[in-house]
Amino acid sequence: MxxxxxxxxxxxxxxxxxxxxxxxCNKQLDVNSTRQSDEAKSWKxxxxxxxxxxxxxxxxxxxxxxxxxxxxxxxxxNGDFTALKRPDLKAIIEGKLNASYPVIESIANxxxxxxxxxACNLFIERSGEALADTRYTEINHxxxxxxxxxxxxxxxxxxxRIWGDVPLLTxxxxxxxxxxxxxxxxxDVLGFAVREIEEAAPMxxxxxxxxDPKMPGEVYHTKTYTEWKNMLINKVSAYAILAHITALQGNxxxxxxxxxxxxxxxxxxxxxxxxxxxxxxxxxxxxxxxxDLGTDQNQFISFNFLRGMGELxxxxxxxxxxxxxxxxxxxxxxxxxxxxxxxxMFPTSNGQxxxxxxxxxxxxxxxxxxxxxxxxxxxxxxxxxxSKVKSINAGVAGEQQFNVFTSAxxxxxxxxxxxxxAEALAVLGHESDAATLLNNIRSRxxxxxxxxxxxxxxxxxxxxxxxxxxxxxxxxxxxxxVRYNKIKKNNPAFxxxxxxxxxxxxxxxxxxxxxxxxxxxNYWK
Length: 525
Hints:
525 residues; Serine Threonine Protein Phosphatase 5, Tetratricopeptide repeat; disordered N terminus
């Protein structure tokens, strides 16, 4: 799980550590820049290697958090949220991705992702020089390089979902060497990502700073297991990424295999199923309340912002978009889920859904209907507030007026992997096993079991509907719609969008202006 405890150093420190890779990336994909320090002096000790590795994590987090990009990319387009007053967000929801708004133009620029990719390339190439420091062992170095390789592959998967064909860079460019690169096919890029993780994952430990065969000893880079847990890419999280890459490829046989590995081994990294309280409560998985290590609940992959490390921020949290009075001082949210949409997401036939539904526990005859507020606050008002994630200034009472947040950006968790595995098995025709997995999740949310014998029963549709409910607000909706329509092929408009490349974002004008070898996606020309 990336970064649940990335705050052993603050984001500011991480970004400082990653400054050299960031400026280097500028040269090959954006604009030519000059070096700001002598990189030849940057790989002398284990401390140099450690700071550079942590810098990669920091740059990746910055890329997905910038302008709340994680949710603008994954949650808004054709999704369940409605924009209240912001025309830029409304444009994204409606798929008008070439509209002239600063936020759209900013997140359409892939430069920040290539900053992190170049940092990976640089680490892979240069970190071996730090072995001159006898404290830096061969085993330590191999594990570090494996992390960098998996992170690079993960970033390529992340941006292929957004832009389709992207430049595939596997070495760093610096010291004034400016080069331009064309786009590689998404198939080639994803193929590279799969090979990289397949080669690197076996080198990774299940745990850092613990008695793990791949990384023995009680200390890793001066920290113990308690300090490192949930921070770094481990073996199980690497296979979770492989499961997602192969699902994007449509290779569900491989997805089934990788999700099986995750399901067989998640207990080795202390992963558990989450209750609704774990998801939405003050001590829930999104909420970073502690001053040092944050929540103790383990997840596969996420990025955190810890109050104790000075990482409270306004941007980079879904709360900036979704929360309003009485939870924060903001008068109205930027986005919300309408009551009609909530009714379609959580139909009464699902029973007493613990996430959102009718609460009859304390309702007497003739009293108004009450609704569970795990996901929604102020349902009785005209604009319901999506409050599944609400890490408001670390939850300190009386400080809500500052509208700063510490919630984690969660990429995947056990419930998501279970539903991804159910998706793969259903596509492959193993419907009984897929239904069992689906009903495992539904039972935990107090939703009646799927019955394949009922009239009109559609297992694949129900799996995606459960993902819609369970994962709302976590950045999955658009990508789920793409996969669902690729499977079903029964929506002519969406089929045309897929065939014509309209499922991808246009490349920003800034990138096109600075690299003559980059061409615009055909759909957006």
